[in-house]
Write a structure and sequence with these properties.
Pfam families: Pkinase
GO molecular function, one term: protein kinase activity
Strand order of the largest sheet: 2-1-3-6
Order of helices and strands: HHHHHEHEHEEEHEH
CATH architecture of the largest domain: 3-Layer(aba) Sandwich
Number of domains: 2
Distance between the termini: 56 Å
Strand content: 5-15%
InterPro entries: Kinase-like_dom_sf, Prot_kinase_dom
Low-confidence stretches: 1-9
Shape: elongated
Protein name: Protein kinase domain-containing protein
CATH topology of the largest domain: Rossmann fold
Structural class: alpha/beta
């Protein structure tokens, strides 16, 4: 049966034979059962290649990514079997975009007007965005414009698990004597969203982001009270 883990048409060792063998081993690891039970099974698969597809489709223990990978590897006809390079390019071996770990998650907000219709001076954030794009490789950064509170923040933290969380935008729009003083300004469809510092701190405390080490507040006069409240509530940051 060990020989049946090699190229089915011959027993000559080759890269294609290795792909076939690895496919059978992966099937067993993924499913907990064997695809081939005997030498007769091997002959059956060579004579009727559709049997491979039927067995892969009937196995309930495989994810779709695993099934797609195995379809490309366990092909009796060598010419139809994926090369090792093609196998490694399969979705199974790549991290989905919404599950990757990044070093820096940058959230930008530049609301255009207040709730009463008064205009807000726009921020020149594009220079900062370009600096992030040039200085940090794509796989290590995630940039989200027009950040809304709280949904965009919670969803982004869940998706990309950053080590550094950066907020860039207006701060202290409300004035020194408002309950929103020293807080960050978010936006919804271009309209200012103001949240008291306590709401922002509570959101970060609730979000499960185990890799988070640093929160960078890039907004005017956000050190107090927002920064101070963050340090008090989340001293590990």
């Amino acid at each position: 049966l060990a020989k049946s883990h090699h190229k089915p048409t011959t027993f000559v060792m080759s890269a294609a034979a290795d792909v076939w063998s690895c496919g059978l081993l992966l099937y067993e690891l993924f499913s907990g059962s064997t695809l081939l039970f005997s030498a007769e099974d091997l002959v059956l698969l060579v004579d009727d290649p559709e049997q491979v597809a039927l067995r892969l489709e009937s196995c309930r223990n495989l994810s779709e990514a695993q099934r797609t990978l195995l379809r490309s590897m366990i092909k009796p006809a060598t010419a139809e079997r994926s090369s090792l390079r093609e196998v490694l390019s399969q979705p199974f071996f790549s991290t989905p975009e919404d599950e990757r770990d990044v070093e820096v998650l940058a959230l930008f907000s530049s609301p255009q007007k207040k709730g009463n219709g008064d205009r807000i001076s726009p921020l020149q954030l594009m220079r900062e965005v370009l600096a992030l794009q040039e200085g940090i490789p794509r796989r290590l950064r995630e940039i989200r414009p027009a950040a809304r509170f709280p949904d965009d923040i919670a969803e982004a933290l869940k998706q990309v698990s950053p080590r550094v969380l950066q907020f860039s935008g207006h701060g202290n729009i409300a004035g020194a004597h408002s309950v929103f003083a020293g807080s960050l300004a978010f936006e919804a469809d271009g309209v200012l969203q103001e949240q008291p510092p306590e709401a922002f701190v509570a959101l970060l405390a609730q979000c499960a982001s185990p890799r988070l080490e640093c929160v960078f507040l890039n907004g005017c006069k956000t050190l107090h009270p927002l920064g101070a409240k963050l340090v008090a509530a989340l001293p590990h940051l």
